[in-house]
C-alpha cells in the first residue's frame, strides 16, 4: 500500500469518539476522519434530563476533533460501497477508506406497536428529546427499562404540574435485584409516579394508550421508551447484520463479512462474558470504541490483537437529581444482591456520566 492509511469513523457518539481519540494516539501514521450528521456531541445519557426541561451541554465536534488533528465531516452517510471502499454522503460527496469504523448508535423503534410514530414522543436522540415539553395533564411513559425509569423520576421531580404514569408488562427494572427493584419503586412512588406493571400497551392513539385488556389510559402526552432499533445503513450496504440491523463482529470487533470494517457501540453485535451479548449502553460504547481502535492500530503494525475481554462491574440509574441506584453485577452482567442507593448513588451516577463525557471528548 502507498500513501497514508485512511481510517473513516462513522458516528461521533461515545463509541466513535472513543475510537477516534484512541486512533489519534495509537495510529499516528493514519489519516483519521470522523463523519457525523450532527455538528455537536450531545451527552445522550442525559436526554431524559433535557426532556424534563433541563439544559444539557453540547460540544462542537469540528473544534474538538481539530485539537487532535482529526478531520471532521458533517454529513449523513447514505451508503457504504464496500467494493470501492467508499462512503457516500448526503452532501453528494464521498470518502474513500482503507479501514472503516462503524459506530452509528441506535434510534427509537417507532414500529413497535401501531400509533407510536404518529402519536408518541420518543427519547433516543437529541432531536426526539427536543420535541417533548411536559404538558400539565397526564404523561404516560411506556417502558419500565432504564430510560423509562430515569425519565419518570426526572419528570416527576422537575415538573410537578404533570401527572406521571410509568407503564409496562413487568415491574420497573425487572432485570435488577430485588433490593434494586424495591428501591426504584419506593423512589418513584415518593415522587408521585403512578406505576402500572401489568400493562401491555398494544396501541398509541391521539387520546392515550390502549392496553391488551382493551382499556384506554388517557394521556396528554405519551413517551415511548420501549424498544430501540439501529440505522439500516449496514444492512442496506450488504454487511452481515443480525435481524435488528446491528453489524455482526468477531472477537476483534471486525465485521464477519467485511474485514476492513470494524463496529462498536450500539450498532454492533458484540459477544460478552458467559456467551451473553453486550448491551446497548454508553458503558459498552466507550470500551468497545477504544478496543476497536487498539485492534486496528495493532494490525497496522503487522500484529494480531488479543480478543476483546470486557465485563460490566455496575449499572447506574439516576432517580431524579437527588437519588439513584448503583447495581453491582456478576461477571455475566446478572445482578448481585449489593446495591448503593440514595444521595451517594446520585453522586456516583453523576460522576460516571461526567466521566463518560470526558472519556469521549478528544
Ligand atoms: C435517555 C437515555 C439515557 C441513557 N442512560 C444511559 C446510562 O445511564 N448508562 C449507559 O451506559 N447508557 C445509557 N444510555 C444508552 C447510551 O446513550 C447509548 O448506549 C450510547 O449513546 C451508544 O453510543 P454509540 O456511540 O454507540 O451511539 P450514539 O451515542 O447514539 O452515537 C451515534 C452517532 O452516530 C450518528 N449517526 C447516526 N446515523 C448516522 C449517519 N447515517 N450518518 C452520520 N452520522 C450518523 C449520530 O448523529 C450520533 O452522533 C442512555 C440512552 C438514553 C436515550
From TrEMBL:
Its cofactor is FAD. The keyword Oxidoreductase applies. Signal peptide: none annotated. Residues 6-273 form the FAD/NAD(P)-binding domain. Pfam families: Pyr_redox_2. Keywords: FAD, Flavoprotein, Oxidoreductase. It comes from the Bacteria. The keyword Flavoprotein applies. Belongs to the NADH dehydrogenase family. This is FAD-dependent oxidoreductase. The lineage of its organism: Bacteria, Bacillati, Actinomycetota, Actinomycetes, Mycobacteriales.
Amino acid at each position: 500500500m502507498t500513501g497514508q492509511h485512511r481510517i473513516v469513523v462513522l458516528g461521533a457518539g461515545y463509541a466513535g469518539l472513543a475510537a477516534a481519540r484512541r486512533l489519534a494516539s495509537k495510529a499516528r501514521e493514519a489519516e483519521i476522519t470522523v463523519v457525523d450528521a450532527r455538528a455537536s456531541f450531545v451527552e445522550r445519557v442525559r436526554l431524559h434530563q433535557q426532556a424534563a426541561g433541563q439544559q444539557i451541554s453540547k460540544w462542537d465536534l469540528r473544534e474538538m476533533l481539530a485539537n487532535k488533528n482529526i478531520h471532521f465531516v458533517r454529513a449523513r452517510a447514505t451508503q457504504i460501497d464496500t467494493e470501492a471502499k467508499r462512503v457516500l454522503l448526503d452532501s453528494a460527496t464521498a470518502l474513500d477508506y482503507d479501514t472503516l469504523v462503524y459506530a452509528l448508535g441506535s434510534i427509537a423503534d417507532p414500529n413497535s406497536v401501531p400509533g407510536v410514530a404518529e402519536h408518541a414522543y420518543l427519547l433516543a436522540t437529541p432531536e426526539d428529546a427536543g420535541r417533548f415539553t411536559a404538558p400539565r395533564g397526564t404523561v404516560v411513559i411506556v417502558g419500565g427499562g432504564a430510560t423509562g425509569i430515569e425519565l419518570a423520576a426526572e419528570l416527576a421531580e422537575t415538573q410537578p404540574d404533570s401527572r406521571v404514569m410509568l407503564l409496562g408488562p413487568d415491574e420497573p427494572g425487572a432485570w435488577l435485584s430485588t433490593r434494586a427493584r424495591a428501591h426504584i419503586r419506593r423512589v418513584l412512588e415518593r415522587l408521585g409516579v403512578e406505576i402500572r406493571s401489568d400493562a401491555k400497551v398494544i396501541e398509541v392513539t391521539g387520546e392515550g394508550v390502549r392496553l391488551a385488556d382493551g382499556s384506554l389510559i388517557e394521556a396528554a402526552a405519551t413517551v415511548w421508551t420501549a424498544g430501540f432499533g439501529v440505522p439500516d445503513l449496514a444492512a442496506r450496504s450488504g454487511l452481515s447484520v443480525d435481524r435488528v440491523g446491528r453489524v455482526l463482529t468477531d472477537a476483534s470487533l471486525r465485521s464477519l463479512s467485511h474485514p476492513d470494517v470494524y463496529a462498536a457501540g450500539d450498532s454492533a453485535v458484540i459477544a460478552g462474558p458467559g456467551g451473553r451479548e453486550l448491551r446497548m449502553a454508553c458503558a459498552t460504547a466507550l470500551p468497545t470504541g477504544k478496543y476497536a481502535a487498539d485492534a486496528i492500530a495493532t494490525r497496522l503494525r503487522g500484529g494480531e490483537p488479543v480478543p476483546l475481554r470486557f465485563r460490566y462491574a455496575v449499572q447506574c440509574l439516576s432517580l431524579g437529581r437527588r437519588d439513584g441506584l448503583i447495581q453491582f453485577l456478576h461477571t455475566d452482567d446478572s445482578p448481585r444482591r449489593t446495591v448503593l442507593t440514595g444521595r451517594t448513588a446520585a453522586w456516583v451516577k453523576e460522576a460516571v456520566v461526567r466521566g463518560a463525557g470526558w472519556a469521549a471528548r478528544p
